[in-house]
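Blinded run. Sample ID left blank on purpose so nobody reads anything into the name before looking at the predicted structure. Input follows.
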Amino acid sequence: MTIIEFMKDKLTSYPKISEFLAGADIHIDFTDPVPVNYGLSSTGDSILKQDILGNQVRQHNFVMYAVGQSYTDYSRLANSNFLLELAYWLEKLPEEDGIEVVIDGEILEGRFLKASSANAMAMHPMGDSMNDGVMYQIQIYAQYKVKGMIL
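Blinded prediction complete.
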């Protein structure tokens, strides 16, 4: 599975996601504008380091957008606490095999190393009033190692 599929699976398995997630899944590159929906967008991948054997440590960047209920301070506080707790949970994800990188038909093995996050915040209301929900974002950084990758 790609790093995008891996992180989608991890986010879907977050124990508290069902408290906020409408439907059964997190959208990719799309967030439904009605509360409560989530979308995971890929925003780039880069090499952090490479050794002489071609092994690379890479970082894939994501933004997860969440549209949450926002009518009361209680709802907005719950949304912010959700993002805070999600950030803590992401930092505790263990290393795990199962990442694949495909280049020119060649499949290279990878290993998830760690995740971190930043900029968890409310972005903007979804309509003319707070009753329409608020879009939140959290940036997620997933580091992974790929064996023998020479570009």
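Unblinding after everyone has recorded impressions. The mean pLDDT is 86.
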